[in-house]
Amino acid sequence: MPTDLVRLHAVFDLAMRVGVGLLGNGAAASEVTATVLRITSSSGLRNVSVQVTFDEVIISYLADESATPFTRVRAASARTQNFARLSAFEDITHDYISGEIPLEQARRAAESVPQTAPANKLPLVVLGFAVMGGSLSLYFGADPLVLAAATLASGLLTAAGQFLARMHIPAFYGQAFGGFLAVGVAVLVGMINPTVNSSIVVVSCIIVQLTGLASIGAVQDAVTGWYLTAAGRMLETLMLTVGIVAGVRGGMLLADALGTDISVSASIPISLITVVWVLVAGLGMGLGYGVGAHVPWRMLPWIAGVSLVSGLVSHLLSGLVLDRVYAVSLAAFVSGMIAVALGDRLRAPALVFVMGGVIPLVPGSLIYRGLLGLGDDVRSGAADLFSAGEIAVGIAAGLVLGQLLAARIVPYFRRSAIAYTPSISTPFTTLRRRRLSLGSRRRRRRDGQEVVEPSTMTGEMTALSASMFEDLEDLEDLDPPQEDPGRRTDSEENP
């Protein structure tokens, strides 16, 4: 096999694995496209086009106008909450681009990431989401009984969801079962002590289930113009949310039959003691979610800090100054800026810290109030659900704007040569279109040395020649690395 073609297969294999890994772990379409183009351009391939859909990554290379195009397609696996793998793909990409590791080592490392065992065992994952649920109930002013019930219910629904996923049951049914389980636990709490606000259990569990969905990436794709990917992610989010609605509505029927009141009470008033509880709850939310989503241990204190700041800003602004929509939007904006700064500083994906800032902002109480209202007054229930939708859009828009501004500011203060800032831009398929999309940038120098952009070729890499396509009769494919069970194989077009 010609040496050039061997290298082309290896470059595409690395780019595909990284692109699919990012897409499957919640990265936005612009980030996936930019990362794949960084890999191919650093390998010497200039005429490369990348297309990202809801569940596929397509890469095509054209050596010159007279050459035969080389195209590969790979489908992404089911979406997961595994930020350890997302961080691993980011590290591999930046180590390869900077020239710290050669192509073959990067390729094998990317192959091994999906095959590695999760960073945290299942009991620890369940415990993490249980702590997250309990912290959420504390954030809403829960009593000790409600706090214990919310912690137990969050752990149970997480364990049930993991079990159903391993049994290959669609996630819709797992969401529905979780919603029903949450209401069931709330009913049990109401029967034990009718004076406590048992609805907090349901609200906390709803937020636990909603936090891991692709709604943030979907709105980011929609805001920046990646409509195809956004449409798929929004439909996925909608269907899984409908599953929660079905389960909660079923649980409400059970509550009505038993005569238990699980209505939502008014928000807790702001005082010094409630601010203290908000701080404690914010730390618990971030730590719990970080453990459940396999966030590397070195990042756990930081994700907890982002969650604390987000919850405190939202709590103070919504209670003292602003309407709820604007309060959470501003809190999301602050979280987005902090996430980018931390990601670049800690050499970690900004998405890790973004999700920490989202947790306290999810409008779980409005969603639940809207579901309750649909049974009595359709207009009132629909209005609450519409308000929840407004808040969800405000959260995503604030996060995207915060990341967008920070991604433009942070590079001027960066100490390292390789960026960890996210790529947030209108649709592009090639490096040239990306430059047009982002606008021209001045080259910066620090201490007399030019800052290296991620798309710059490293010294040991050379461009592939067009002659590699002239004789294709005796070509053999590389031995494909092992795939995860159930993952679709590559589709290669090389006529």
Question: What does it look like?
Answer:
The strands form two sheets. The protein has a four-stranded antiparallel sheet, covered by helices on one side. It has a two-stranded antiparallel ribbon with strand order 4-5. It is 62% helix and 5% strand. It is mainly alpha-helical. The radius of gyration is 24 Å and the shape is elongated. Helix 9 packs across helix 16. The protein contains 17 helices and six strands. A hairpin with an 8-residue loop joins strand 2 and strand 3 (70-75). The protein folds into two domains: 3-117 and 430-493, no CATH class; 122-217 and 247-413, no CATH class. Residues 13-253 form the Threonine/serine exporter-like N-terminal domain. InterPro entries: ThrE-like_N, ThrE_2, ThrE_Dicarb/AminoAcid_Exp. Residues 484-495 have a biased composition (Basic and acidic residues). It is found in: Cell membrane. Its main location: membrane.
Report the β-strand fraction as a percent range. under 5%
Tally of helical segments:
17
Indicate the structural class: mainly alpha
The mean pLDDT is 78
Uncertain regions: pLDDT < 50 for 5+ in a row? 440-495
What is the compact description of this entry?
InterPro entries: ThrE-like_N (IPR010619), ThrE_2 (IPR024528), ThrE_Dicarb/AminoAcid_Exp (IPR050539). Keywords: Cell membrane, Membrane, Transmembrane, Transmembrane helix. This protein is mainly alpha-helical.
